[in-house]
Write a structure and sequence with these properties.
Elements (H helix, E strand, L loop, with lengths): L18 E7 L7 E3 L5 E3 H19 L2 E7 L3 E9 L5 H9 L9 H11 L8 E8 L9 E2 L13 E2 H5 L5 E9 L11 H18 L3 E8 L2 H10 L17 H16 L5 H6 L34 H5 L3 H8 L3 H11 L5 H14 L3 H15 L4 H18 L3 H16 L5 H23 L8 H25 L5 H17 L1
Parallel strand pairs: 1-4, 1-6, 6-9, 7-8, 9-10
Antiparallel strand pairs: 2-3, 4-5
Helix pairs in contact: 1-2, 1-6, 7-15, 7-18, 10-11, 11-12, 12-13, 13-14, 14-15, 16-17, 16-18, 17-18
């Protein structure tokens, strides 16, 4: 994501309709079944059709501009970019039902065609592309990423990066990979896909384009459906059940997903940010003292305002109340009036949150960058909490469900532990911090030439074992059998198992 350094001004004008394109793999491998935790399985294409149907319904309800590109041996426009409404939805639905897999995978040509649907008269590409694929490119004849080493033809092809991201572009790209690619032709090669996204990000930095790129890997039918639908719905419009209301199977899947963010922090910038908060400045250097004004809180638009709103949020109360009621114009006005009495990190965080609520991801990203910079001046006692909440907003903004699963669980646990015995509460929060720090020792086992691989692996395993021991001590201390504590410890234990 390219981030600008200027402080954004919040614009209360309604956002333009979303311009969204789905680029869907229709290669022959999409006929293969995808298992579910229930033991049942359905073809990938059946699940994808069901998800596209739900996406089109959502586009009609929200007034979004939607288009569908499919690719197999070649790329085609299945549904032209346009508004979906009651009169044309049956026709769009009939096009979806005719989607039939065959042939190979022209992924790059499909992405290029998706960008063409979003291309404006100036040549810039503006909007959102969601790529869904279960493999790797083996059929494109027109485009390839710069520096591609696995071209299907010795004939030079056009540069995909320059075509997708010309100057003046504003692109959000989300890639949903089906399968883990651990076996040939059994899924997306996550390492190469992340390398592709890094190349695209380098292009964005070169031209100064505001962008959001994310990669999510799914291996069950339920996850494929959920991720496809959620990719086309604003984060705060999607009801998200409390982590503590999840079934044991769902909790385990969330923990495994969170562990992936820990194992690849460089691919999850929200997590990577937590490792770069810098040294704590001296208390004497603080531009303001810790106070209730320092509110960088986790709230979701649409939830019921707390009864102690005024007491808890002080000058931010009007902002919070309007935000919870989804009145972003009023919230922006209230935020402007409170600006002089708010710490810089608080003001910038709420600018980002309001912009995100309006669907303006570019302004949200700019404001969030300002908040990250201001967080360097936050008193040490509050910095971990503040940076973690900034990271959670960044994960939501970038549609990074792996990082969000981890950070959301930490936040919910901390909130629910307020009534727990102080010593046990601090012990569990310390376990979470130690869990986050495991990404450092894990990375040393993967960096070639960093140190002896056996020594690095032993160091990481020792760190995991130490946390396991502390976790068991916490279980013994939970004599009251608190369900919140048990759930938090179960989550940590599953993450640890995945980190081995």
């Amino acid at each position: 994501m390219t981030e600008a350094a200027s402080t954004p001004d919040v614009d209360a004008a309604p956002a333009a309709p979303d311009r969204q394109v789905l680029v869907l793999d229709l290669s022959k491998s999409m006929l293969a079944p995808l298992p579910d935790p229930t033991g049942a399985s359905r073809q990938k294409i059946e699940i994808a059709r069901a998800a596209v149907t739900r996406i089109v319904q959502n586009a009609e309800q929200r007034g979004s501009i939607f288009g569908l590109v499919t690719f197999s041996d070649s790329a085609k426009v299945a549904v032209p970019l346009g508004e979906v409404h009651r009169e044309n939805r049956p026709y769009v639905q009939s096009l979806i039902e005719m989607l039939a897999p065959s042939g190979r995978s022209a992924i790059w040509d499909g992405l290029a065609l998706g960008a063409d649907l979003l291309r404006e008269t100036s040549g810039a590409v503006r909007g959102t592309i969601v790529l869904v694929t279960d493999g790797w490119d083996n059929a494109s004849v027109t485009f390839e990423p710069t520096g591609a080493e696995d071209r299907v033809s010795p004939v030079p092809r056009k540069d995909l990066f320059g075509h997708v991201l010309p100057s003046g572009s504003n692109l959000n790209l989300r890639v949903i990979g089906i399968g883990n690619g651990s076996q040939r032709d059994k899924g997306v090669d996550s390492q190469r896909m992340n390398q592709f996204l890094r190349g695209l990000n380098s292009r964005a930095l070169l031209i100064g384009a505001p962008t959001t790129f994310a990669y999510e890997e799914v291996d069950t039918g339920a996850d494929l459906y959920a991720e496809m639908v959620n990719a086309f719905v604003d984060v705060e419009d999607v009801p998200r059940p409390s982590a503590f209301a999840l079934s044991s199977d769902d909790l385990a899947r969330n923990a495994a997903r969170a562990a992936r963010a820990l194992k690849q922090p460089e691919e999850h910038s929200a997590i990577h940010r937590l490792a770069r908060t810098g040294a704590a400045p001296l208390e004497a250097d603080m531009p303001y003292s810790e106070a209730p004004l320092l509110e960088v809180d986790v709230l979701a638009a649409g939830q019921t305002p707390p009864s102690n709103l005024r007491e808890r949020f002080g000058p931010l109360a009007g902002v919070v109340e309007a935000y919870l009621n989804r009145d972003y114009a009023k919230a922006s006005g209230e935020l402007g009036r409170a600006r002089l009495v708010l710490p810089p990190v608080t003001y910038a965080y709420w600018q980002a949150k309001l912009a995100f609520g309006r669907g303006d991801t570019v302004e949200a990203a700019r404001a969030l960058l300002v908040a990250w910079s201001a967080a360097d001046s936050v008193p040490i006692a509050s910095r971990i909490r503040v940076t973690r909440r900034l990271a959670l907003l960044q994960a939501q903004l970038q549609k990074d469900p792996e990082a969000e699963a981890l950070l959301q669980f930490v936040e919910e646990t901390e909130a629910k532990l307020r009534a727990a015995p102080e010593e046990l509460r601090l012990r569990i929060l310390d376990l979470f911090e130690r869990l986050l720090e495991l990404r450092g020792t894990y990375q040393l086992t993967k960096i070639e030439g960093a140190e002896d691989p056996a020594v690095a692996a032993q160091r990481h395993e020792s760190a995991v074992e130490e946390i396991f021991g502390l976790l068991q001590d916490a279980r013994l201390e939970n004599t009251a059998g608190d369900a919140t504590i048990d759930g938090a410890l179960d989550f940590i234990e599953i993450c640890l198992a995945e980190m081995r």
